[in-house]
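Exercise (ungraded).
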Amino acid sequence: MIPIAKPLIGDEETDAVMKTLKSGSLAQGDGVNRFEDAFAGFVGTKYAIAINSGTAALHVALLSHGLSEGDEVITTPFSFISTANSILFVGAKPVFADVREEDFNIDPECILEKLTKKTKAIIPVHLYGHPADMKFIMEIAEDHNLTVVEDACQAHGAKIDGRVVGSYGSGCFSFYPTKNMTTGEGGMITTDDDLVADRARMIRSHGAKIRYQHEMLGYNVRMTDISAVIGIEQLKKLNDFTKRRQENAKYLSDMLQFKGILTPGVRDGCEHVFHQYTIRVTDDSGISRDDLVSALAEGGVGTGIHYSVPIHKQPFYKDLGYNEEYALSELMADQVISLPIHPSVKTHDLDYISEVIKKALCS
Ligand SMILES: Cc1ncc(COP(=O)(O)O)c(C=O)c1O
């Protein structure tokens, strides 16, 4: 079986965890501080604030930017549910803008169509590890005085013209085990904004800067030192992991030049970190997406459908009254398959995956 994802934990991580366990500093402490410093340096922001999941990072980032009831936040319907849910958490309204085919990311032209007087923020998602069109999005944000919170949960180290995502607006990252780097569960907010950083630190810890002095409503969404020291070691290895993902993606794209199979593109100036390697199965292929998934499963190849149901079509969102159509998001949801290209996947695995696909297309 070739799994769709596999965390790579080495002796460095286990040694660091053992050392932390023996130190007795198990909750947020020096390990978290060191991870934050390293991550801020990696993204190129003044601050990084560790949180216990990507979802909580989005929630805390929106609260820290002052988003609340009555505000509208524009985002993509073609993402993991927590992108839009974080907007609901703060009492604001998710407003969806459709995606572009070239990179599966929010289309800035569609953002322009959705602007109203209530629009306060945009959450672009760097889906699969491909940067959203941040230059255009930042222009819109500047023209309309909007906050930008980047959902970079899938895009550790992705770049546009050398600039790392998560440094355009405030960035939110996830360290779930399937991600390009992991801490078990975990998240991070990156920002250059002094006030946002200050508020985020308070909100993650019961609204207090000083113990037992609570200045605002907060939560307990702190990261533990046990997680943070895993993150420090993973971050050291991230560039190597990413390179292997990119090499595997290139190799597979060269192999999958079949009619009706669309391999992922990379927009000019962008560095795609291939959290997911996602192809599209179009009608020209002569096979349905689901039959191809079955053929891959029978051949022992793990796949993922990210995402089979766009957010506006989820039952919960339908109940909230979302009934607009987003044609490209819906088309992508019907066509996409993610294939394994993580760092443990070897060239012979990629040859095999391509053979299984070729056989399925010919049968
Ligand atoms: C695009 C996106 N946003 C948000 C999240 C939430 O991250 P977490 O699972 O760490 O809460 C994820 C992770 O699955 C994601 O892929």
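Further reading is listed at the end of the chapter. For now, observe: The mean pLDDT is 98. The first helix runs from residue 11 to 23.
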